[in-house]
Amino acid sequence: MSKINDDSNDQTTGDSAETESTCFPWQSPSSRSFDDVGGLDSIKEQLERLVVRPLIENREEYARLNVTVPNVLLYGPPGTGKTYLTEALVGEIGYPFVKITPSIVQSRFVNESAERVRDLFTEAREIAEQYGHAVIFIDEVDVVLGSRDIANAHHEDQKVVNEFLTFLEESGQQNVYVVAATNRRERLDEAAVRAGRFDREFHIGIPGAETRREIFRTHLEGRPNTVSDDDLTWCVENTEKWNGAEIAITIDEAARRAVERGGDTIQHEDLVDAIIDQTSERVPSNIPL
Ligand code: ATP
Q1: Which of 63, 72, 182, 254 could bond 270 through an S-S bridge, CB–CB 3.0 to 4.6 Å?
Q2: What CATH fold (topology level) applies to the domain 209-279?
Q3: Which ligand 1 atom is the nearest neighbour of the CA of 214?
Q4: 40 lines ligand 1 (CB under 6 A)
C-alpha cells in the first residue's frame, strides 16, 4: 500500500502525512493557496471553476451530472509561476501530489522508462484510493511527451509517450488529476493536447505592470515593511519584462539588505538597491533558458 512521505523540511508540505516509502516523491498537499499567487486572476478563476469546485466545493452537484475535471496544461516562459500556481492549486484542493521531472521518468535501461510511467499511474491510483484523489504535476512535459514524429525519435521514447497518452485518457475515472507545464508548447506530441488528455491550456506570459505589482505585494506580505503604494509604483516601473522568479529573488535580496543595515523592516531603499543590483545581473526573461 502506498503512503505519502512527509518531509517536514519542505515548506510546500503539510503535516498530516504518514511515512512509508513510495517509488515516487509524493508530498502532502501544499499549504499554498491562490491568494499567494500574484495576479493571474483569470487563470485562477478558471481553475477554481474547472477544478476546485467540482473536486471540493460543490463536489456532489458536479458528480451528480457527471462533470469531468479536465487535465490542465500550463505553458509559457521560465519563471512565470507555472509550478507555483500548480502548488497553489494543490493547496486549494488539498490532495497529495507528486512533481514529476523528466529525470524521474527516464531510465538508462531500455524498456524501463515506459514501465516507470506505468508504475507512476499505478501508485497514483493507490494514493487516490486512500486519500480521495491524487495529483500528478509533470514539469517540462515537452521532454516526456515530445512529438513522436521527429525523425530521430527513439523507439523507447515513443513507447513512453504511448504509455502516458493511454493513462492520461483514463486518469479522470481513477481520480488521478494531471497538471503539466512546459516552456515549449510547440514540441508536444499533437495527440497529447487533443480532447480527453490535456483539454484545457493556459498561457502564462511575462507579467504586465499590474501582475508585477501583485507579485511584489504577495512576496512582501508577511514580512515587516514600510513600502508604500508609491514605492511599489517605482518598483513596477523599474522591473519591466521581469518574471515572477526575478521579483521574488529581488525581494529576498531587499530583506537581506535590511538585516545587514541593522533594520527590522524592509524599506523602499532596500528594494531600490536590490532592483539596481538585480538589473545588472539579470538574463532577459524572454530568452528561453
Ligand atoms: P520554469 O518554467 O522555469 O519551471 P515556472 O514558470 O514553473 O518556471 P515557478 O518555478 O513557478 O516558475 O516560479 C519561480 C518563483 O517565482 C516562484 O517560486 C515564486 O516565488 C515566483 N513567482 C512566479 N510567478 C509568481 C506569481 N504570479 N506570484 C507569486 N510568485 C511568483
Answers
A1: 254
A2: Helicase, Ruva Protein; domain 3 (1.10.8)
A3: 28
A4: yes
Tell me, using a 6 A CB cutoff, whether residue 101 lines ligand 1: no
CA of residue 173 to ligand 1 center, whole Å: 30
User: Quick one: cell of 204?
Assistant: 502564462
Whether 253 and 266 have beta carbons less than 8 Å apart is answered as no
Minimum-distance ligand 1 atom for the alpha carbon of 86 = 11
33 CB near ligand 1 (under 6 Å):
no
d(Cα 236, Cα 268) in Å, to the nearest integer?
12
Can you tell me the distance from the alpha carbon of 57 to that of 149, in angstroms, rounded to the nearest whole number? 41
Residues 18 and 80: their CA atoms lie apart, in Å, by 33
- The DSSP symbol for 191 reads G
Residue closest to 116 by CA, chosen among 87, 66, 159, 148: 159
Sign of CA dihedral 63, 25, 80, 235: positive
Query: So where are the chain's domains?
Result: 2-203, 209-279
Probe residue for ligand 1, chosen from 32, 37, 83 as the CB with the greatest number of ligand atoms within 8 Å: 83
Q: Give yes or no on whether 2-203 and 209-279 have one common fold.
A: no
Quote the cell numbers at residue 57.
466545493
Ligand 1, pocket-test mutation among 43, 47, 80, 286, most atoms within 8 A of CB? 80
CATH domain 2-203 topology: Rossmann fold (3.40.50)
Instruction: Give this prediction's pTM.
Output: 0.86
Please provide the DSSP assignment of 211-238 as one string: HHHHHHHHHHTTS-B---HHHHHHHHHT
pLDDT tens by residue, 238-262: 999 999 999 999 999 999 999 999 9
